[in-house]
């Protein structure tokens, strides 16, 4: 890997031993295209570190919280472009080329459409609603694979150090720099949360939390509500 990569994929993890190899193994061949994978663990108590170490370009441990982990990974990353990817999310074929093409225009950030993987019949409907809402509002969630130039990340000040809605706030900051590139190619992310906690119950909870955040509720307050409900 050269000193500077074309794309750095930053992956925050916490107890993801069951999924991390499934994500990292297909990404090993991307190193030939100057793509690096930076895994940032928040203190896992399972085998996440042992399983990720031989597969990642870089593996570091940081203070827990997704925002802090992603910022720590960005500091270690060498890429001109940054992609922040959840450990249970899979990229579409040629995602590195899609990102490079999207960021070669006037847009400095973007996201993919999403497909929710699972058996619940509502998951395709929920994914379609997520994609439409994101396209209309210009706000993306972490499930959609947020990507951006290094310059845009720095100009936005990185992810805000807050326990919830860090992706929403980051989208707001990035929107001041340019509209997002809304790619129709889909990342595939696990629908386990929706199936485990109930699709309607989870959907209503997320709408309620986002509404309260838009009305000015603090991320700390909403995180307490989220943990209580879960």
Description of the molecule:
The protein has 230 residues and is an alpha/beta fold. The protein has a single domain (7-196), classed as Spore Coat Polysaccharide Biosynthesis Protein SpsA, Chain A (Alpha-Beta Complex), CATH 3.90.550. It has helices spanning 20-27, 48-52, 66-76, 95-102, 123-137, 150-156, 166-175, 192-197, 199-214, 219-229, and strands at residues 7-13, 35-41, 58-61, 81-84, 89-90, 109-117, 146-149, 181-190. Helix 9 runs antiparallel to helix 10. The longest helix has 16 residues, at 199-214. It is found in: Cell membrane. Residues 8-105 form the Glycosyltransferase 2-like domain. This is RSAM/selenodomain-associated transferase 2.
